[in-house]
Amino acid sequence: MSRWLDFDPQQVPVKGVDRHLPTIPSDAISPAALRRRFAVPPKWVPELVAEPRWSERLPRHASVLLPIVMRPSPTVLLTERTLHLPTHSGQIAFPGGKAEDSDVDATATALRETWEELALAPSFIEVLGVMPHYCTGSGFIITPVVALVQPGFVLQPDHNEVADVFEVPLAWLMNPAHHQRHAVTHEGVEREWFAMPYQQADRLRFIWGATAGMLRNFYRLLCA
Questions:
Q1: Is residue 197 domain-resident?
Q2: The pTM is what?
């Protein structure tokens, strides 16, 4: 049984906000700049590697697509998971999921899962590269696959897995003034995490946990 089943991250006070860190400039998040960054990657170290384990399940490999939509101002395509899923239900997530034996590599997993969840065809996707593993408390060893997505796609979400799909400006996500730090201790175990609450019209998109952690690592990559 998870120690965090009754845990509501939105009710935990903000511990700090990283306003002192530099914002990624707009010319560094253009498609051309991102292509160059992955073609000749810098030396860098991910800030977040593994969450405290709260599940006893055996570790499973998984992949997610970090999809950057090439709009005039680039955005990140995110999903909201349905409430009935066994893990991370209701959370904001990248499209992705568990690796299958038929997948030749982590990129194949991310592309397959993105197609299954959203019907976003690989013909719209330009894979740039992968980032280091991110290990979740639920036992998943996640490979983030960064990609550019050509606009013009029409999504058909699988409503068994995806409750909603939306986009957040990449510049907003790469501004550390929007990176909140949280921490809570429960049954003697402390958990820390980032959150990036994004107000979209009249709806708050509470991006936190693994998704926020991988976005934070992406910020560190672009800072390097």
A1: no
A2: 0.93
31 lies in which domain range?
20-171+207-223
Overall domain count for the chain: 1
Give the 3-state secondary structure of residue 94: coil
116: domain CATH number?
Answer: 3.90.79.10
Q: Assess contact for 100 and 86: CB atoms under 8 A.
A: no
Q: First and final CA of the chain: distance in angstroms?
A: 39
How far CA 91 is from CA of 9, 95, 127, 147, 179, in Å, comes to 11, 12, 25, 21, 17
Give the torsion sign (CA, 98, 101, 102, 104).
positive
Residue 152 neighbours by CB distance under 10 Å: 6
CA gap 9, 181 in Å, rounded: 11
Q: What is the largest CA-CA distance in the chain?
A: 49
**30-48 pLDDT, tens digit each:** 999 999 999 999 999 999 9
Kindly report the length of the chain. Answer: 224
Say if CB 198 and CB 168 are below 8 A apart: yes
